[in-house]
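REQUEST FORM: STRUCTURE PREDICTION
Request ID: SP-0412
Submitted by: Lab K.M.
Chain count: 1
Length (residues): 176
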Amino acid sequence: MATTTIKNKKAVYLKNKERDKQEILNIYYKYDRHPGYRMMVIFLRRRGISLGRTTVFKYMRELKLRSFVMPKRPRYYKGECYKKFDNLLKQDFTYLYLADGAKRYNCSIIDLYDKSVLATINSKRMEAEFIRQNSFETDIELNDDILDYIYGYYNYIRPHSSNRYIMPFEKRYTKQ
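STATUS: Completed
RESULT:
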């Protein structure tokens, strides 16, 4: 009798494990291979699946899934600026390159309360996790893709650690 119960528990465990691994795969490919195990735990909890970080890390390793992470650029040490101004609006400037090598500049203004992007502009005269893995043929394609990323993924899907892993729009519209 005891061995039957143990076998049943093992069968239930394996069934749940396969279900959880399939859900991890779905989330991983839905968000273009971005979520690592920490972000995966948050996405799973939103779907009602409560797994620990080490379990998710183990399942992702078994599935051979790795988060797409760009290495940080080395710091620039040339010299002192003539004038320095505080970045009070928390603007983020990013250099972008079109397929033909032409340089564009992106400036995003981030809300200090909920970390959502309020405005973004691309210019010939003037977000890294998205930009570094894509290439753009034209200015129009660049602008359209950046707007889709910011107003589709960054503000409404991506959890932020500074917001206790909730999305910017959730923080804005929930009373805390």
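NOTES: The beta strands are 91-97, 103-110, 117-123.
Reviewed by: T.R.
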